Amino acid sequence: MLRQRIYKSLGIACLSLVYAGCKLPTLAERNVNRTVPAGYVNSTKDTTNTAKVVWRDFFTDPYLNALIDTALTNNQELNITLQEIQIARNEVRARKGEYLPFVGIKGGAGVDKVARYTNIGALEANNEIKPGKETPDPLPDYLIAATATWEVDVWHKLHNAKKAAVNRYLASVEGRNFVITNLVAEVANSYYELLALDNQLEIVKQNIELQNNALRIVKLQKEAARVTELAVRRFEAQVLNTQSLQYNIQQNITETENRINFLLGRYPQPILRNDQSFSALVPKVVSSGIPSQLLENRPDVKQAELELKASKLDVQVAKAAFYPSLGISASVGYQAFNPAYVVKTPESMLYSLAGELVAPLVNRNAIKAMYLNANAKQIQAVYNYERTVLKAYTEVVNQQSKIGNLEKSFELKSKQVQALSQSVDISNELFRSARADYMEVLLTQRDALESKFELIETQKQQLNAVVNIYQALGGGWK
User: Fold this and answer.
1) By mean pLDDT, which of 42-46, 76-80, 422-426, 471-475 is the weakest?
2) Gap between the terminal Cα atoms of the chain
3) Where is the signal peptide, in residue numbers (predicted)?
4) How far apart are CA 323 and CA 310, in angstroms?
């Protein structure tokens, strides 16, 4: 009868533990929207995608490729990301070890003095190990044993925690790929900006020479009383303004070179480049493919998806905290009051085996808070994933539109530069023959210089747009 009562009490206790774990807080739910448009705005549904082209083949300038190679080796931000991957890998190893038994070796030595006039002291005084010998007083204690503890993963809490760590490790790898994509694009854009500045500087030097020639003519005409001192001063001011512009461009060149050096993880030094090739550069034709390919090609999209998977597993881990946990502990070893008896078998041998079932019954607020927080982070991950996909799609559409508009703008500005260049020659000839005012010459020269600057700027924006759409499509990290 007593045994039946014990079994009945244990059964009631187990049922109470399970029932307590089943009463879970209600969670808010948010399903992820994975749908994307079938195609981009005003584009075909051709699946050819430039993002699959490796960056070494996409960029053909050997100087640029050498810079990107150095950046991928020395860039500090990228190297920091590599260490984050190592941290995530170690987290996987730690989670994996949690659901395996923990085994250790324990050794100890001590001494215990019990008062003589107590029940234990009197008992030890009368307990003789051998005839005529009392129990040692004080009583030494020597122990050597192997211990093991193991939490049985009944509810897959530990396995889910390991899976979440694996997903975060994979997400950190995609995070590194996203950093690589951005780094390649930033180096390329800065390189093209440097080439554009070199060309602008060359144009300024050419204009300074032309304006100095015009100034000499004006001075001769002033001596011949054909123009006044005002014309001479206005031409001098124009030359000084252009010379000032030259130093502004040189400062921009220095800053752009140093920005590239910073991306390459090195101190300021000259950047090797072929500045004569800029005018001959033709923007590449980019194939955007279809929007669904962004889910495969964009590292930030894949990173957000892996973070979403990890957050869902975190909810399962937090949920398992409400259920009973089963722990098993065991030990085996030797213990004696005399070193000579420590390894004496079986007298000095000890062993133990125990199991415990524990579940929270009262004051579960901390567990509820962790459970609700895990769910809130999961919903955050859903929104982050949807936002990342939307951002990727928008970036591609914006760059597609920019490439088309810049192409039309470049064509018109090329005609403008051609017309104004001819106007400069015409205005100079008319000025020499006194059929044009000196202000017309100055204004024509200024407009021609600005138009050439704008043409170079437009060409640079075209090259940047091609780099940016290559990045937006998910290219550059392979």
Assistant:
1) 42-46
2) 73
3) 1-20
4) 21
- 33: Cβ–Cβ under 8 A, 6 or more apart, which residues? 386
Domain layout of the chain by residue ranges = 25-99+153-323+361-472, 103-152+325-358
Query: Which residue has 């400062």 as its token pair?
Result: 251
Superfamily of domain 25-99+153-323+361-472: Outer membrane efflux proteins (OEP) (1.20.1600.10)
Amino acid (one-letter) located at 61 = D
- What CATH number does the domain located at 103-152+325-358 have? 2.20.200.10
User: What residues have CB less than 8 Å from 478, skipping those under 6 apart?
Assistant: 52, 54, 55
Q: What span, in angstroms and rounded, lies between the C-alpha atoms of 395 and 390? A: 9
How many residues would you count in the chain? 478
Looking only at Cα atoms, what is the longest distance across the chain? 143
Segment 223-247 shows an average pLDDT of 87
Backbone angles phi, psi at 396, to 5 degrees: -65, -45
> How confident is the model at residue 246, as a pLDDT?
94
CA dist 432 and 214 (Å) reads: 10
Per-residue pLDDT reduced to its tens digit, 264-319: 999 999 999 986 778 788 888 899 999 999 999 999 999 999 999 999 999 999 99
Give the predicted TM-score (pTM) of the model: 0.85
HEC states along 218-250? HHHHHHCCCCCHHHHHHHHHHHHHHHHHHHHHH
Section 464-468 average pLDDT: 96
Q: Which two tokens stand for residue 310?
A: 């990890």
Q: What per-residue confidence (pLDDT) applies to 446?
A: 86
- CB under 8 Å to 189, separation ≥6 — which residues? 464, 467, 468
Give residue 42's pLDDT: 73
